[in-house]
Structures are given as structure tokens and as C-alpha cells.
Amino acid sequence: MRADVSAATSGSQNISYEVDWPLIRQRIDRRVQPSHSWGWASPQLEPLEFSLVVQAGEDDFACFVKGNNEVFLPRNSTSGCVDLYSNLDKLLLIIDPETYLPYIIRTEEQHPIYGYATKDVYLSNYKEVQGIKFPHTIQTIYNSSSQRLGVVLEDFVIDKINATAEFPKDFFDPGSDGQNRIMQKKTPGVPSGLVTDYSTSLLGSPVKNVSVDALKSIRPVDLLQLYWLIIDDSHDLGFKQLIIEFENEVIVCDAPPFWSEAVMEWIKKTIGKKVTYVAPTHHHRDHSGGVADYVHAGAKLIIPEMAVDYWSSVPGAQFITFNQTHPYVHRDNKIQAWFNWADQAPHAADWTYVMVTEQCPNKDSPIFVFEADTWEAGLSVDLGNQQQMRQWLDQTLDDGLPRSATVMPTHGKITPLEQLINITAYPYPDFDISRWRKRAALCNESSVKKNKDD
Fold first, then answer.
1. What is the mean pLDDT of residues 352-368?
2. What's the pLDDT band for 184 if we cut at 50, 70, 90?
3. What is the β-pairing status of strands 352-358 and 367-371?
4. Rounded mean pLDDT of the chain?
5. Three-state secondary-structure class, residue 305
6. What's the CA gap between 149 and 152, in Å, rounded?
7. Which of 68, 160, 306, 441 is most buried as measured by Cβ atoms within 10 A of its Cβ?
8. Which residue numbers delimit the Metallo-beta-lactamase domain (predicted)?
């Protein structure tokens, strides 16, 4: 799977150092311009400006003293001290054999999808400043041992070096207010690769306060087998999952990190069944970081066949696959769920959506759709991306989804599809469920058989 979009398009920074052995202090003053993909979280796409101070040694810390690196937070909110993880015992310095200058600084980490991974800082384009050679081109490259991966996390060019700079007395202090001075330590059980994913994507920290008691659900009265599970109700864009209950199985749609155990416990207590399948809408980490937990608990993965190589890195993963012409259909005597993918999908190459209706629907039957990130349903139109929204409507029209369907989003509110059609001024004709996949959802006329496990 290749990168779909950039988290940021441009930026600038000053990096300052102070060495007072055995203490080493660093301050990063950074300005980042978010890419258009963050329009849903920050409609004005204001730059992120933050200052982070770091101290290595016995009293180590890492604290934001100005701003934050989370695109959906107010720009004037200061994050304070954050989790600190020192991996210096596994730091590898690779020297250029010709110049004898540092070439790569490597750290190792575990990633929930990629497994063993390396994060390499490449140093090149050395120039001499006051008798000392400094690299002027810096790249951070992420590599995986389980699949072909060489992703550029960030790169920058150093255009000025001051080797004799003087700093104000409190320049490297962790902050004066009480909250900023609460030093954090590494949270147990958090893969460092997941921290890398979130921080480089402008999502801040992946660590959440998880509790099964915090989970809430909404069930449509006309299709009680569906549970719109609200795992974060702190704001309208908070995360939701879809739980589909069948007679003998349970399918969990989407898998944000850290919530898997709580969700499985909630399902066991509320539904009385075990999770048998997990279906991530796409590979972006906030939607898939918990997949490995479900697989470890025995669930099979429902994914488009083009994503098999990507998900094969998860130990013990078993797949049920589908493609554009052959969706995966899961049925029992009450409901049917269709998992759909299209070439040139909106938002991400492996992006999918789910349609659920009665086992034998008629023109008045309820139709529910679960989608992620293409439409922040029920929220302000300026949070959406018109191109993505219309691209999804292109797909639903080809599939034959009636405009009477109701959307259950991961971010937003339960909202009629009709609202999206109006927002986009899309010329969407009126038809009923008989048009879905050329009458495939109707009883005794299905041209699509239930897929077998691969």
C-alpha cells in the first residue's frame, strides 16, 4: 500500500541545542502547513505552530511549551508534557565508508501492522561551518521487514547554522504552569510504531483512556441487528464503529487502536457472542490500528483482495476477500451485509463501504450504509471534500444504492444519504433496492453467492 496523501505540504523550523554534560537539551520550534486532506478537522487549514523542548539524561522529558501537533485541536492549546520513550540502547549509527561521516541514524520499533520496522534518519549534503561539517539534507525513512516499504516520513533542508548562538535563561525549560510540569513516562503496551504513525500524521498521541463503561450505542428500530457503537462522544467527529449481529456471528466494522479489548468485552456483555470477523474500511491507522487484536482473538479479516499483501503482515491473519465485480455478502435469515470496493476508490486505494438491509427487502425496507472519511455526515458542509463525496456517489450509483439509504458514519451523525445528494447537487435518480447490484439483494434472484473463506 502506498501513501495516499501527504499530512503536510510545507513548513519551517528552528532546532536549538544546549549541551551541559551530562545533560543535552533540545528545542524544536516548528511551523507546519496541513494538507487539504485535513479539511474535515481544520476547515481553514491554519498552520500548526508549536515549540517542543526535550531533555536527555536522568531527568529526561519532552514537553510542548507552545501549541500542539494535533490538527483537530485549537491552535492556541498547549499540549504540555507527553509520553517519553528513550531507545538509545538500540541506536545504530551507520558511517559512510568513503567520507567517514555519519550517513544513517537508525532506531528499531514494533509496528502493529508492519511488525519489526526501522526508522532511519539519512544525513547528506554536508557543508563545513566554522571548521565542522554539518549535514544540510535530512530525510526520515520508514522501512518494514515484513513487506516492501520505504516511506519518507519527513524531509527538510538546513539553510542556516549558527554554532555560537546564545539563548534566554528559560529557553529550554519545560513550562511554568502545573500541567506542563507533569512529566509523563512511556505508556505500557503502546507499540512505538503506532506512536510514529500518529505523530507524523499530525494526530498527536494514539494513547486513549479506554473503558468499556464509556461505550454507547444506537440501534435503528427497523434493523435491530445493527449497533452504531460510539467510542468517543467528546465531539461530533469522535469515532464510531458498526457492529453487525448475525444469528451465529458478529462482524466489527473498523478497528481503531486501543479500543479492541473494550469493544470485544462490550459485545460479549451486550450481544452475548464472540467477534468472528473484522472489516476495516481502509488501512489508515485510526481505522485499522486495532485489527491485529481482533485477529489475535480469532476473527477473520474481510478486505478487498488488492489489500491482501498489506494485511499479510498481521500474524495469523485469515482473509475473506472481494473485488469490484464480486462484493462479499454475509447473510442469515434476517439481514444481509454487502462489503463493496471499487478501483480508483475515494480517500484510499483500499477504501470500502458496507450496505446492510433485510434478508428479503422490498421497496420500503430500511437500508443502512457504513462509511469512513468520505463524508462527515450530518455536520457542516465545509468539513467535507466535494471531490471525495461526489466520487463516493459515483460508486454508490454504479452499485445501485437507493437515495433512501441512511448513512452511519465513523465521524459525524446518522444522516439520510439524501442530504449528501443535496450538498453535492449530484444528479442522483430515484430508484429502489431492486437496482442494487442488478437485483442481487432480492430473494430468489440473487446473482451473487455468499463468498467462501479464502
1. 97
2. low
3. antiparallel
4. 89
5. helix
6. 10
7. 441
8. 243-322
Q: For 288-304, what is the mean pLDDT?
A: 96
pLDDT per position as a tens digit, 225-268: 999 999 988 888 889 999 999 999 999 999 998 899 999 999 99
* DSSP codes of every residue in 385-449: -HHHHHHHHHHHHHHT--TT-EEEESBS--EEHHHHHHHHT-------GGGTTTTTTSTT---SP
The residue that leads in pLDDT, 4 or 164, is: 164
DSSP 286: H
Report the amino acid identity of residue 400.
G
| Separation between Cα atoms, residue 338 and residue 342, nearest integer Å | 13
Overall residue count recorded for the chain in this entry: 454
Every domain of the chain and the residues it spans: 8-200, 212-435
pLDDT of residue 448: 43
Rounded distance between C-alpha atoms, residue 255 and residue 287, angstroms: 5
Query: Is 212-435 CATH 3.90.245.10?
Result: no
The candidate with the shortest Cα–Cα distance to 443, out of 371, 341, 362, is 362
Q: Please tell me the distance from the alpha carbon of residue 275 to that of residue 300, in angstroms, as a whole number.
A: 9
3-state secondary structure the chain: CCCCCCCEEEEEEEEEEEEECCEEEEEEEEEEEECHHHCCCCCCCCCEEEEEEEEECCCCEEEEEECCCECCCCCCCCCEECCCCCCHHHCEEEECCCCCCEEEEEEEEEECCCEEEEEEEEEEEEEEECCEEEEEEEEEEEEECCCCCEEEEEEEECCCCCCCCCCCCCCCCCCCCCCCCCCCCCCCCCCHHHHHHHHHCCECCCCCCCCHHHCEEECCCCCCCEEEEECCCCCCCCEEEEEEECCCCEEEECCCCCCHHHHHHHHHHHCCCCCCEEECCCCCHHHHCCHHHHHHCCCEEEEEHHHHHHHCCCCCCCEEEECCCCCEEEECCCEEEEEEECCCCCCCCCCEEEEEEECCCCCCCCEEEEECCCCCCCCCHHHCCHHHHHHHHHHHHHHCCCCCCEEEECECCCEEHHHHHHHHCCCCCCCCHHHCCCCCCCCCCCCCCCCCCC
Largest CA distance in the chain: 82
Q: 180 falls in which pLDDT band (50, 70, 90)?
A: very low
